[in-house]
Amino acid sequence: MARKMTxxxxxxxxxxxxxxxxxxxxxxxxxxxxYRYDFSSPDWPYNNVMTIRAxxxxxxxxxxTAEWEEMFPDxxxxxxxxxxxxxxxxxxxxxxxxWRPHIKWENWTIRTPLRKGATWERKDGTKFRISSLEGKVxxxxxxxxxxxxxxxGKGDLGSGEVYYAKGVGMVRAKQR
Length: 176
Hints:
Blueprint: H1 15-26, E1 34-38, E2 49-60, E3 63-72, E4 83-92, E5 95-100, E6 105-111, E7 119-121, E8 127-139, E9 142-153, E10 159-165, E11 169-175
């Protein structure tokens, strides 16, 4: 049973474990799971489909690691030039960390605790904030409610938002 905390609530033993369970719900790592997104960018002249697949998922205690394989455009469309790259992800009680060892890039995608107003900063200065745990978003796959809504920004370099639906993962990302 989910419990809504208020400012008056006192943190009880075991609440850190509850936050880790929340991360699992919003960022599931399931071997073979495929995500297909509509994608648009002025920098990408091909079709507007991106496919992401979870591979090599391994759990050890409270940590789960996986490899994401990202393909632009959809590999099932032979008329377009395929592009793919891989990165690693680790989900733990601390949050979700992604890294690309070949370019020495590592950052936190989501940090715990999962509560409205929580913030964190990446090494490049981009600031993230949990705007809501009750976000609602409509995408071609349907309407998702009670989403983790994360917003981010870095001065003049742009801003964006990401919605994570329970049991599904990322359902919408928009970068400006």
